[in-house]
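User: two proteins, same treatment. go.

Assistant:
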Amino acid sequence: MTLTQLHYLITIAETKSLNKAAELLYVSQPSLTSAVKELEKELGITLFYRSGRGVTLTNDGMEFLLYAKQIYGQYEIVLEKYGKGGAYKKKFGVSTQHYSFAVKAFVELAKQFDMSRYEFAIRETKTAEVVSDVSTMRSEIGVLYLCDFNRKSMGKILRSAGLEFYHLIDCQAYVYIWKGHPLAGESAISFGQLKSYPCLAFEQGDNSSFYLAEEILSTNEYPQIIRANDRATMLNLMVGLNGYTLCSGIICEELNGSDYLAVPFADDEKNRNTIMEIGYVTRKNSILSRIGGMYVEELKHCLNK
């Protein structure tokens, strides 16, 4: 087994085509096919199903791909640190729950690089997809939160996915509204005061669980609730419908604008506030790339502000 074979495997899996992979790798298709067959023979498994529409990974192939990405990813980290570099574009990806500070940190990171030489990606997405993206190494880092309510279940999910959680900051929940909201002048807002307004929550998919929610009090029964998929829509609903959401209260005005407020959430016996522990996840026992380490530092810088 060689690093070249692993590189070939990863590229074929990403493109789902031997022709496209051969073009990207600057090798002939017969050479590429031969390398894959040699690898399959050495491993004693079939990596791909081949058809007229392209190639797809077998179950064995999907499992082996995870190990291949880990090995080749660590090789790239070593090469980046000690090698003379090359013509290939270095990749870096982040998957995150809907946090403007995570995007701000990504922006500050990207400013430090020549984007013609790098391929960066940031994915604001569902909690389960943050876990999946990092587990499958689609993204190097994931950003999400834990609290007393979800900690046990999320811990089990992270362990099953082979991920490790690292603490960044603790904060209590706030009511996030626009500055023209009827409750905008309050020093604190209780759950009872919010009954007349729609609660806004991020959609978590068909198989969603209360433990995957990005907001606290996800098990409460709300008189009005609207689910959205992205942060921009959420902000529009705040203005158009006087909606609100219960969040960390960490606002990046540079990206979200100055038309929104985070007001402390006044809890009661039935609706308790909670400490939200925001952090990042990586694959267990993996070494952060130089870019990954820089992104974590940008996260800390944004949060410390």
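Protein 2:
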Amino acid sequence: MIRLAIDMMGGDLGSKATLEGVRIFQNKHPGKVEFLLVGKKEELAEIKDCRIVDAREVVPADAGVLDALRLKESSMFKAVELVKLGEADGVISCGGTGAFLSDATVTIRNIPGVKRAALVAPFPTAMKDKKVVILDVGASNENSGEEIAQFATMGSLYSRYIYGIEEPRVFVLANGTEEDKGSPEGKIAYKILSEDKRINFGGNIEAREVLSGQADVVVTDGYSGNIFLKGSEGVAKFMGEMIKRSFKRNIFSKIGYLFSKKGFKEMSQTMGYESVGGALLLGVNGVVVKAHGSSDGEAVSSAIEVAYTLAKNNIVEKIKEGLANE
């Protein structure tokens, strides 16, 4: 049975949302996961069929790396430590990104051979039900060309075993499709990948084409990846507000909304973080999923789905095997 540890107190909505997320998952997949819920035991007493690990402290959202590591009685630290001790196959947290990723990297450590762990996020594309895997989207601010090239190997393995794409098409994020475009590190990654016969390399891709559906994996340094992530979120939010204002303009526009409501609901579900679940820290020696800080029960359940799928497919072992053949 898959064992998953959850930081129950890290998110904006506290244990209420994480408890709801666990219940939703249990109803969908009864008996599939043994949960280790880390938080204040009195807040978690009502849930059944779970192991409760008492923790009295919460890591603040703006906590630095050292602060997070010093709070050894926090729900985040204890949840991560369960993976290190071999008591859990994976860990999920809605807590601060920097603190959680640093805690996981230092405590669980990287898979042997991994130069730098990467935060992976699946994005929706113009093709129905197709996701594009982008990494790194913020685990590091700086990455070398060699690290970016290795992200391609890890991203390809993720895409193959999680989405069933036998030969994922990999691109480097750049400011043009020509070979001489991109950052100095991106150019190095381009050269390495163009010579690597194991990677189905498609060359450079511009940001405006990333969500078109032509790419299965897009690799970049963490700074650029995070800018892309936040920019995409901002544009989606802006467009959503613009559409709402347009439909509220007059009685005719409101009637128009009634006819197109279903389509906009589908678009919202496609773009919403609730359905994606969370981003994975790929390259560490365990399944580590970072859920959105404001996750509600549905979003937490989706994050658990991500961790469950990764653990069930032995993604850590697959990466170890793949890197061993480099």
